[in-house]
Amino acid sequence: MKATMWSLQGLRAAWLYESSFRLEVYLFVLLAPLGWWLGANGVERALLIGSMLLVLSIELLNSAVEAVIERYGPEHHELAGRAKDMGSAAVFVLMLNVLVVWGAVLGSRYL
Is 2 annotated as a binding residue? Predict the structure, then answer.
């Protein structure tokens, strides 16, 4: 039960303090019903919706890494910058994955 509370606190913190997370949630809320409707079966629906959930998950991890880095101070350090850049890159790669998954699922049907 405590783990659930901590998870909800983490989601709340991400919602309150991370504009990127909020934007990605808005996109998820808009696109998840579309993915459910466009998916021809359970596998396609899982791929379309699951790919977007992965973006949200990695955004949470990226935000956590950034919070830890900021905890140690605002001064620039090469390793801190590298860690932030890599976290951002992970989110970007999964956004590309969303495009690939949606393109593959929908393209195979409509092209």
Answer: no
The domain tally of the chain equals 1
Q: pLDDT per residue over 1-54, tens digit each?
A: 999 999 999 999 999 999 999 999 999 999 999 999 999 999 999 999 999 999
24 is in an annotated binding site: no
Domain that holds residue 81: 1-108
Give catalytic residue positions: 59
What are the distances in angstroms from CA 47 to CA 26, 44, 57, 61, 103?
19, 5, 15, 21, 11
Does 76 belong to an annotated binding site?
A: yes
What CATH number is given to the structural domain containing 39? 1.10.287.3610
SS3 of residue 18 by DSSP: coil
